Amino acid sequence: MVEQIRKNFSSDNVVPACPAVMSALAAANADAAPAYGGDAWTARLDDVVADIFEHPVKVFPVATGTAANALALAALAPPYAAILCDESAHIAQSECAAPDFFTGGARLVTIPSEDGRMTPEALSYKLGRLPADDVHNPLPTALSLTQATEWGTVYPPAHIAELTARARSRNLAVHMDGARLANAIAHLGCSPAEATWKAGIDVLSLGMTKNGAMAAEAVVFFNPAHAEQFARRRKRSGHDWSKQRFLSAQILACLEDDLWLNNARHANAMAQRLAGGLFRHPGSRMLYETQANEIFVLLPDRAIAHLRAAGFAFHDWDTPEGVDGTVIRLVTSYYTRIEDVDALLETLSEI
Ligand SMILES: Cc1ncc(COP(=O)(O)O)c(C=O)c1O
Q1: Model confidence at 89: pLDDT above 90
Q2: Cβ of 66 less than 6 Å from ligand 1
């Protein structure tokens, strides 16, 4: 079983929760505690996150990234709104229209990009097509950026600042899907503040599950006006856990002693090692520069079959038409060891 999971590169959510999180859950389980966020763990969240992000915040734990994104966007977008995002965004591709549902009908307007990072020009072009004074189109009220992106690339903070400035000039609020924000920060070497509110982010879905938690994400509001009645939104969605201490304890454990960033640094380093080896394989082609912990690589079908026959797991991804081979996605995590990476590369070298 352990052997199998060590060969599983299909996602960063297939691995176990990390020991610090399990200990924190056990500690939170030692006694009774007040329900619905009245507990001592939840009481610390705002201060701990504010310290790390160097800004006052309101923090709301939820159990999934989809809930974090959909509820955060619902706080920014009325039913007649347009939410702009990259065409690859998880909110547009993989959340079963949850943002549309929780906003009561807002439309996701997608913007094409080369590598998951929308350009300021493409954003301005799309905004230009959605004039505020024309009742025939939905009113853009929110921009959502994914960091790290769906293609494993990372926006530099200056790029984010340029996008948020253009959004702000049209009165849009800006959401960040930070399911892999820790990996982005680890790559950039910047502070959490520089990666978020200093670059113009208003609301953050701060991911923990892919980075060592069992199931916990934090919706972080840098602007308290947007947090108004968020507790009710969360309640209606069924994410107001009565035993909220178990969500909060996971988030605190991840943030303590920089565990979230150390885990992400390790995951990124494993991705670099893996990408470097894959790059050297004849017939391979990296689709994007590996900057976080996801690798998208085109490999000959024979090589892919050989890896699978040896027990390695990963997902096939969209393969451009007419190319010889298949694009696969490989994801590393805090749990990936050097020997796991090397075992995959060695198996590949047998081809
Ligand atoms: C970028 C991004 N955002 C959000 C999510 C949603 O997370 P969940 O599956 O916990 O709803 C994912 C999960 O794959 C993701 O990759």
Answers
A1: yes
A2: yes
Q: Are residues 210 and 268 in the same domain?
A: no
| DSSP at 8 | B
Sign of the alpha-carbon dihedral angle for 70, 74, 79, 85: negative
Based on the domain organization, do 67 and 203 belong to the same domain? yes
What mean pLDDT do residues 98-118 have?
A: 97
Last residue of a domain, one of 244, 259, 274: 259
Q: Is the CB of 65 under 6 A from ligand 1?
A: yes
Ligand 1 mutation pick, 66, 117, 219, 331, max ligand atoms within 8 A of CB: 66
Q: Where are the beta strands (DSSP E) in 184-336?
A: 203-207, 217-221, 285-286, 294-299, 315-316, 326-331
For residues 57-81, give the mean pLDDT: 98
pLDDT tens across 153-210, in order? 999 999 999 999 999 999 999 999 999 999 999 999 999 999 999 999 999 999 999 9
Q: Which ligand 1 atom is nearest residue 217's CA?
A: 10
Do 326 and 202 share a structural domain?
A: no
Closest CA to ligand 1's atom 8:
65
Structure token pair of residue 88: 């690859």
On whether residue 5 sits in a domain, the answer given is: no
Choose one of 243, 259, 275: the last residue of a domain.
Answer: 259
Considering the domain architecture, whether residues 194 and 109 belong to the same structural domain is answered as yes
pTM beyond cutoff 0.85: yes
Domain enclosing residue 122, as ranges: 19-259
Residues 124 and 182 grouped into a single domain: yes
CATH number at residue 308: 3.90.1150.10
CA 325 to chain CA centroid, nearest Å: 28
Ligand 1 within 6 A of CB of 179:
yes
Query: Which ligand 1 atom minimizes the distance to the CA of 146?
Result: 1
Q: Are residues 37 and 137 in the same domain?
A: yes
**Cβ(295)–Cβ(152) below 8 Å:** yes
Q: What is the pLDDT of residues 117-155, one digit of tens each?
A: 999 999 999 999 999 999 999 999 999 999 999 999 999
Q: Tell me, yes or no, whether 181 and 272 share the same domain.
A: no
The answer to whether the CB of 64 is under 6 A from ligand 1 is yes
What's the structural domain count of the chain? 2
Angstrom distance (rounded) from CA 83 to CA 203: 14
Instruction: Write the single-letter amino acid at 175.
Output: H
Distance 213 CA to ligand 1 centre (A): 13
